[in-house]
Amino acid sequence: MAAVADRGPCSVLAAARGAYEAAFGGAAAVAAWAPGRVNLIGEHTDYNGGFVLPMALQLGTVLVGSPTQDGTISILTTAPGADEPHRVRFPAPTQSRPLSPGRPHWANYVKGVIQHYRDDGDLVAKALACQQAEHTFASVPCGIMDQFISVMAKENHALLIDCRSLDAVPVPLRDANLAVLITNSNVRHALTGSEYPTRRRQCQEAAAALGRTTLRDVTMAELEASRSRLGEEVYRRARHVVGEMERTARAAQALRDGDYVTFGMLMVESHNSLRDDYAVSCPELDQLVEAALEVDGVYGSRMTGGGFGGCTVTLLVAEATERAQQHIQEKYSGTATFYVTKPSDGAKVLPL
Ligand code: GLA
């Protein structure tokens, strides 16, 4: 069983500074941190203008650097699994010569942010620029959830984000008796790349058939009434999204009320809907959720993120975390990695 990982900015910063000095000589002049995220509930709703309820992790990415004088940019990664080469150099973009994606793949997201980001101090604009980078340089037509939470997160809070208005309300999550356990299945099925855009298209198709711009504007009653007009598959995709939006609003209220039983029940409903209607789960994720739900003290568990592998998220009483990890690993056919983590702050400049 793998140990609990909890790599905050400090330990990652030391490693990043060391790698910088070894590669470029001299010390880095600036450093910044951006956290990863886990979504508690509200899956595949962001690109439908719906609600999501993520929190930022104590795990994240550090970037260190210094200005250059020769009009070029050099970047180096220490990320495990990044494709070769791990160091690249390219001309800084100009109006007439913008950057474009290419190889190595790991550098595309960085290049995309350099291309799209303008430092105007507006945090929503910052998140939107990073989303543009993912659309145009990483070729993933993602929603706004990941970038928004990474920029806006608040320590000890989840964030209820309305992905239509881009308003966000912090929801306290700091009960010492409660824990959030993330379980990495350590599998990633190849389907992810092609299925995500397909789901997005099916949602648009359903909304258009109902005369709306997004599924946010569709009620369950309207959807049911139009079932025969939509193909069965498109209907089921839309049923997940419309149901998930309702569940997410209810879950945020349950969290405010300290009603973890209701929250957990909604997580399970979310998982079942992602598995059966949205068809983005996989046997490994289903196994992990099923095993988690067998543990005394677990309120709820579900797949989290895009699906087809990746992680599950489990809400449980704090004293149950050890036995939950043990039980899940015993029941899981693969090798799981566990993280017990607290809601952390969003991206920030780190003092050097
Ligand atoms: C990926 C995307 C997000 C969101 C989730 C599913 O993580 O990047 O925008 O759509 O999938 O909720």
**Total beta-strand segments:** 12
- Helix-and-strand structural type: alpha+beta
The overall pLDDT, averaged over residues, is 95
Strands in their spatial order, largest beta sheet: 9-10-8-11
Spell out the helices and strands N to C.
HEEEEEHHHEEEHHHHHEEHEE
Associated small molecules:
alpha-D-galactopyranose
Any idea what the shape is? globular
Largest sheet: 4 strands, antiparallel
Low-confidence stretches: 1-6
Q: How many H/I helical runs?
A: 10
**What integer value in Å does the Rg equal?**
21 Å
Ends distance: 35 Å
Question: What's this model, at a glance?
Answer:
The protein has 352 residues and is an alpha+beta fold. The chain has ten helices and twelve strands. α3 (123-137) runs antiparallel to α4 (145-152) and α9 crosses α10.
